[in-house]
Write a structure and sequence with these properties.
Largest sheet: 7 strands, parallel
Strand order of the largest sheet: 3-2-1-4-5-6-9
Helix content: 25-40%
CATH class: Alpha Beta
Structural class: alpha/beta
Distance between the termini: 44 Å
CATH topology: Rossmann fold
CATH architecture: 3-Layer(aba) Sandwich
Radius of gyration: 18 Å
Length: 273
Amino acid sequence: MINPETDRVLITGAAGAIGTALRAGLRGTWRHLRLTDVRPVADLANNEEAVIADIADRAALDGMMRDVRAVVHLAGMIGHYTLEDLFRVNARGLFDVFESARLAGVERIIFASSNHAFGCYPITETVSPALPPRPDSLYGVFKVWGEVMLQNYYDRHAIRSVSLRIGTYRSKPIDQRSLATWLSPRDVVHLVDVSLRHPDPGCLIVNGYSNNTRLKTRDPNWATLGYQPRDDAENFRDVLRVRGVDVDGPDREEWEWPEHGGSHARAPEHPPR
């Protein structure tokens, strides 16, 4: 079990949107937070220390793993990128983080996977982590690879892990799809917190969503972890309607995309350069 009073937790990608939410939500109870990002990490609290480094810098990774009991791995390319950058950060960088953690004796890894790991399933099919992955993009493929690598680390090296298949993370829902896939800042803090505190999660994969009325997945692993999300994208329907979003289609089970991954499932891959 990871102890919030005594054990050091490393958060990669700490200057990003989820990293910033985690810092605000965790630092009141987790007493030893080490933060890393390629960008500056602002406004450090007394129980936070920052290491500014590229995730591709293996020597820097090896150094920051010292005295770390658990890693929350958030760093990764998303949005606009070349395939070379995607591989450098989300494949090679992921390998280096996990392997550096293994060699340093880290006991638990919380991995920011993605719902794009199962994005090619039809939206009409209720998906759970028990089903085989069906990634909708190379981005999703590398997330699946991270999950598989953690299974190997559990079987071979007894490193406990929780892979979070994160949905649409925003402060508020942004479109019709996020009525089903939204993950709020409050709920992501709760999800990471219970993933760190659980006595023995084994090698677990969970869906990272809020308690949305229009949830299109099921996940018994929420109960295993003790995850009880509180926010619901449904509360923002009127706000989305004012912005011109079709929020009434889902009432008739009419969604603007045919797969769980939304536009990812049919978009062309990024060019190599």
